[in-house]
Amino acid sequence: MIRRIVLGILGFFFLVPPPAKAQGIYSIYDIKETSPERWCAEFQTREGKTVIVDAPVHIPDVDAVPLMRVCKNFKTYELVGDESFLIGKADARKREEIYDPDQFPDTEYTYTPENLIFFMQDILLSNGVADEDADLIPYRVTALGSMYYVKNGKTFNRKNSFPASVADTTKPWNHDQTTGYRMIATQRIGGLPVFLSGTVAIGMNSMQTFSSLTYIDSEHYSMNLNTVTIEEILSPDMELLSFHNIQEILTERIVDGKLQEILEINLGYLCMSGNAAEQNDELSWQLIPVWQIRGYDTYLDPVHVLSMLSEEDRIKYDPDMIYSIYINAVTGELIPMVPVV
Fold first, then answer.
1. Could you tell me if 141 and 182 are in contact, meaning their C-beta atoms sit under 8 angstroms apart?
2. What would the pLDDT profile of 14-24 be if each residue is shown by its tens digit?
């Protein structure tokens, strides 16, 4: 029922002319010319809290932002080697997970995250995926340090914390010195990134362009590849709200105490299930142009659990890809992603 309501809302966004449109709509060329490289500002919330914004603004170097329908193209899973050697065993050993690229361990291997993207692309191309559908980009990268014995710790989702085994970095396991990466990748379609949601929420189909690779060496890796291909161009070039309009929308959320931290602002696509149609036993989805606002917004945490936890690194590096809100770049509406509690 909730899914139907959300899909109805998404359809409404594109059927009804948005009020914000009167404020001015722009081509991607105009937006690139008028948007700052960084948004730097200081605000006072209604409750008197100071919020400082100093965030990069990333706009892809493209000539058009089409509205497209895409369909499933390729999916595969492959495991090579012992899975417990890749990530450990929860009751005995575990690899250290490092989010900060500046602290990634030195390794005897010469591969980099970029090399691993090429590795994933080679698999796609060898399976007949077209070049334009194999345009993968890194989305989140976690370094996997050596194996350690485990200790008690915690993990959590948007609502609750749970006991979990975590690596005890004071107790190396059998002097293991191997390291690796866990990479989440996504497609870039028409030069624009397709954003992913770590918790695949109602109304979204980010899993369709979600690819992952856990890699230690050529004899120990697991890979899950998902891609889509363009089925139909619904509009060759969407006119978007100006970046100034987006700033006004975000400013209102900041002043209202909702948007509390902005780390990064990016323009791209979401893979949405609005107007999904069944064709040849496959679903098709729309790619909707959106602004991704990475950071902390109370919308992501309706029961205010995350705000009470020490989350600075997890918000900054966001390995679970949950610390983002999405603004429809055509209508200025917040894309509904979090189920109502």
1. yes
2. 433 344 334 56
